[in-house]
Amino acid sequence: MRLLLFFDLPMETSKNRKDYAVFHKFLIKNGFIMMQKSVYSKLVVNGVTSQAVKERVEKNLPPEGIVELLEVTENQFSKIDYLVGENQNFVEESMDRIVEI
Q1: Is it the case that residue 95 has pLDDT exceeding 70?
Q2: For residues 32 and 10, what is the distance between their CA atoms, to the nearest angstrom?
Q3: pLDDT tens digits, residue range 20-57?
Q4: How far is 71 from 88, CA to CA, in rounded Å?
Q5: What phi and psi, each to the nearest 5 degrees, are found at residue 57?
Q6: How far apart are CA 18 and CA 62, in angstroms?
Q7: Rounded to a whole number, what is the distance in angstroms from the first to the last CA of the chain?
Q8: Which element (helix H / strand E) includes 77?
Q9: What are phi and psi of 98, to 5 degrees?
Q10: Whole-Å CA distances, 29 to 44, 55, 58
Q11: Among 26, 46, 47, 76, who pairs with 72 as Cys (CB 3.0-4.6 Å)?
Q12: What separation in angstroms does the CA of 75 have from each of 29, 45, 79?
């Protein structure tokens, strides 16, 4: 499964920009990959993992703006049509698990 995260955060004040930076660092640290400026994706193994990631995101939301999460299957995700541009090779296509010791 994939989690697609979409967000639109205000950037009007220095606090807004700091909140954005903190949220962006959280996404990167937690394995989200940027697909477009405000669209990130994360590969999850199953529904339990998906729910845990959703809860982690909810605990780290910025105080203002819009953040949305969409869960799609790998089959649905693979049907993305690139109308302009090319398939981005940095998006992980593997279901292999990485274990760090």
Answers
A1: no
A2: 21
A3: 999 999 999 999 999 999 999 999 999 999 999 999 99
A4: 20
A5: -65, -45
A6: 10
A7: 25
A8: helix 74-77
A9: -110, 130
A10: 15, 15, 15
A11: 76
A12: 26, 14, 7
Question: What SS3 class is residue 78?
Answer: coil
Q: What is the pLDDT of residue 79?
A: 86
Residue holding tokens 């400026």? Answer: 37
Greatest CA separation for the chain: 42
- Rounded to whole angstroms, how far apart are CA atoms 62 and 95? 30
Closest by Cα among 43, 49, 51, 36 to 88: 36
One-letter amino acid identity for 29? Answer: K
The gap from C-alpha 53 to its chain's centroid, in whole angstroms, comes to 10
Cα three-residue angle 44-81-4, rounded to 5 degrees: 30
9 close to 64: Cβ distance less than 8 angstroms: yes
